[in-house]
Amino acid sequence: MQLGFVTAILGDLSFEEVLRIAAEEGFDCVEVMCWPPSKAERRYAGVTHLDVTQFSDAQAQQAIELCRKYKVSISGLGYYPNPLDPDPSHRRMVIEHLKKVIAAAPKVGVHVVNTFIGRDWTKNVETNLAAFRETWPDIIRHAEACGVRIGIENCPMLFSNDEWPGGKNLAVSPAIWRAMFEAIPSPNFGLNFDPSHLVWQHIDYVRCIREFGSRIVHFHAKDARIDGDDLYNQGILGLKWHTPKIPGLGDVNWGAVFSALTDAGYNGPVCVEVEDRAFEKTLENRKRSLRLSKRFLQQFVA
Prior knowledge:
Elements: E1 2-6, H1 15-24, E2 29-33, H2 57-70, E3 73-78, H3 88-104, E4 112-115, H4 125-146, E5 149-153, H5 174-183, E6 189-193, H6 196-199, H7 205-212, E7 216-221, E8 223-226, H8 228-234, E9 242-245, H9 254-263, E10 269-272, H10 283-297
Parallel strand pairs: 1-2, 1-10, 2-3, 3-4, 4-5, 5-6, 6-7, 7-10
Antiparallel strand pairs: 8-9
Helix pairs in contact: 1-2, 3-4, 4-5, 7-9
């Protein structure tokens, strides 16, 4: 396995600055954010470390040379919009850019692109699955033609009462993953697995790894802490009784996670995804979050 981090936490730095920090902190790789240059609609979105909107061979070569200079590889390209957004124009826009990210990946020697399935949060699961079956086969065919594997992150994207109960990403549970992979059995279609999103759903994330291990193409190392008092007060139908944390500071059983990953034969990137507000205030704090995460995970990823 290769230990890396998601570059969104360093969204105010250039690609070269990110690589320099990765090298200084001893990371093997980074997942590079490739949003179209624009104002971010939410935290950690809108980060552009590689602008693929008009991605030339010269730009690709420059990125490759920077990776060689700092001896840090790219684990995957990341772009996390809502390809099933209820607004048709927005949906077309994000799918067009997602295809550009997919096409850019092999130019920099990368064969993984991570994203969301998306969801119309005003509709039920069956209606969204129908939309998925209409929308996603074309995207996966494009990925197959480019020699790229798609890793779908399992974050529900549920942050407010306006998005209740489904959130803005459909691919959140084993039942839905089975339906997805039945509809699109392509080996180029898989998971960017993040155990933190399963902790607060009370889904057995270790069992998930054992069932879907062959589908994991990328792994996000993020933890989550459940606030028992807040859960008691609100109940499971409430919001914000769980908090994203860096690995080791939440409720994920990391020993069991890596036991299952190794049993499944996973030997790919393990990228720290920092969304822990306790480490956000300064650049030094963000670097410290990466340093602490790496120190913790090294017991599992040598």
